[in-house]
Amino acid sequence: MSDQKPTHKLGEHPDWAPPSITIGAVGWVRANMLSSPLNIFLTLLCGYLIYLSVPPVVQWAFLDADWFGTNRDDCSREGACWIYIGFWFKQIMYGRYPDTEVWRINFAYALLVVAAIPLFVPSFRWKGWLSVFLLIGYPIIAFYLFVGGSFGMEHVETPLWGGLFLTLVISVLGIVASLPIGIVLALGRRSDMPVVKAICIGFIEFWRGIPLITVLFMSSVMFPLFLPEGMHFDKLIRALIGVMLFSAAYMAEVVRGGLQAIPKGQTEAAEALGLSYWKTMNLVIMPQALKLVIPGIVNTFIGLFKDTTLVLIIGLFDLLGMIQLVGTNPDWLGFHIEGYVFAAFVFWCFCFSMSRYSQHLEKKLHTGH
Amino acid sequence: MRKSVKILSAIAAAAFVSSAANAGTLDDVKAKGFVQCGVSQGLPGFSNPDANGNWTGIDVDLCRAVAAATLGDASKVKYSPLSAKERFTALQSGEVDVLSRNTTWTATRDTALGLNFAGVNYFDGQGFMVRKSLGVKNALELGGASVCTNLGTTTELNVADYFRANKLEYKLVAFEKADEVVAAYDAGRCDVYTTDRSGLAAQRFKLGKPDDHMVLPEVISKEPLGPVVRHGDDQWFDIVKWTLYAMLESEEMGINMGNVDKMKGSDNPGIKRILGVEGDVGKNLGLQPNWAYNIVKQVGNYGESYDRNVGPDTPLMLARGVNNLWNNGGLMYPMPAR
């Protein structure tokens, strides 16, 4: 025992604050960045890399950049020239869609947002009907809006579609169509019926076995040669069908992964209760299986969203294609870096939102088993 | 029920752009009311979007001229942007009526692919770009230089031939992508950048300081670019060919967008024939007598199209050179319109 006098009685000791170097910013830095010689070295290395890379990018993209103006003479060329993006914004967003008709695209966007908001409101009661509208009714309305030719709206041909609008049309259609087709294919592949099983395996393995770029080339280069002379399918529709079937095959395998993770006892229990095959799938298996594979599904969606840029090789101008195209205007040559940076930014925004939403969905549907 | 039928027919109408099978291309074009023209996916000065997003360029002008000649309205063109790989299929399968897409006229394409080149609307050729500070005035002074170019292209082979024929030493620095080649040249990894001269003019703007560079006068390869049509429709072949000749002929005669109406009253028999005041050229082509008048009035003559899209006053600053008329020391030689 030391000769220090105890200042407090037993059981009445007050809570001392932890030592100041173990809490707050200092404590965090010590614990996470300087805890060992190796960590100190790594911290310094990362700091140096950040010092090397971030300031020049900020300098180029923000400090030295030109933001306001109407032509290339307003660009000092010392930093990025965002005037270029502003000048071509309409083309990058809507392609060559007629100026007077752009409201139709905006209206469809707005309708989608307004219709989708109640889905995120927990107390909204008609979610089922709204989903049906979004999956079946909305595409029909959007189709009429985009194509036109009825209700006094001017007909807008698909070669005029482009930019972010086209990227969204292709990817949303691919995403929306691939999930149901993929589920059916996955169930078919696990089916006991030999013909159904063979067809599903054949379909999945065929589409998974060829690269998307080949699918697109086949649809645009080979397919027209098989058709009778004088008969042409719209190029966009050919590409859409190709993208849809391609992504459905991938989705089928993701869903099958989920189905295999569900113990056989679940099916047997459902059958013991007298549920039919479809009821077993709908009420017992699918809700569990799909929840398990949300990361895989969203992964496929994000991959598909980015793969849509491949349509450039068949002469469709998606976001990236449009940015490359407007860069060939002789008055605006030499701004390709700004264009690519902008395209990367837009793609990142969309992909990151999808990723965050999937994490939110995982948390929401997490039931602890 | 009726609504679903209507929806289905709308989908079908959007999906099928059908044209009467086996009819001549001219009848076909007249029936649908527009010319379907295959263009590039963006090549500065040849086919690129203008500030409003509409197609413009020297190749696009040819499409518009064909529409003016056949339909009397240069705006009645629909464009199919085609990648280099799908362009010939699109023409063979009838998806486009004419391909005006900076396509080099070669023997294989003219014969084995079942295509016909209707002429040359731009004589391109491979050239060299160097830094002005190098002090080089022509390509023969390039001995010992390092040359940046694209890997595995004819450009690479042409350089090898040229330097060997002139007994010059050189070092090749080749890359897969055009952007990489430009970046390497800009970073000083080589003294010379070589590709087609129209390409040099456009790629120059990707350099840090475009004005510090110059294009040498030598042209070391032949790249005749021209409009292409399908085999087996001679009437349409004639129309596209003579559309190009009419643009050249009107330049030779001094007819342009501004004075074409006045020129109609000219006493010169050559002008009278091309503008359809006299003779049967239009009728023999299956067109209206004023077919060439429409071209010049709405699109302009070849010189106007050149100056507007790629000429010295545009950012591309391509001198007329071999693309001048034959009587100005160039290669453009329209056949007599009589």
Q: Can you walk through the features of this model?
A:
The complex is a heterodimer of chains A (369) and B (338). With 369 residues, chain A is mainly α. Chain A has helices at residues 24-32, 37-63, 83-87, 89-94, 102-116, 127-147, 163-189, 194-209, 212-226, 235-261, 264-272, 277-292, 294-307, 319-326, 336-365. The model of chain A has no long low-confidence stretch (mean pLDDT 87). Chain B has 338 residues and is α/β, with parallel strands linked by helices. Chain B has 2 domains: 16-123 and 223-328, D-Maltodextrin-Binding Protein, domain 2 (3-Layer(aba) Sandwich), CATH 3.40.190.10; 126-215, Periplasmic binding protein-like II (D-Maltodextrin-Binding Protein, domain 2), CATH 3.40.190. Chain B is 37% helix and 18% strand. Chain B has 14 helices and 13 strands. Chain B has helices at residues 2-15, 25-32, 58-71, 87-92, 107-111, 154-165, 178-186, 197-203, 234-252, 260-263, 269-274, 281-285, 291-298, 302-309; strands spanning 35-39, 48-49, 55-56, 77-81, 98-104, 115-117, 122-124, 126-131, 145-150, 170-175, 192-196, 213-215, 223-230. In chain B, strands 1, 4, 5, 6, 7 and 13 form a 6-stranded mixed sheet that branches. In chain B, helix 3 packs across helix 9 (234-252) and helix 3 (58-71) packs antiparallel against helix 13. Chain B is globular, with a radius of gyration of 22 Å. Chains A and B meet through helix 6, helix 9 and helix 14 of A and helix 1, strand 2, strand 4 and helix 4 of B.
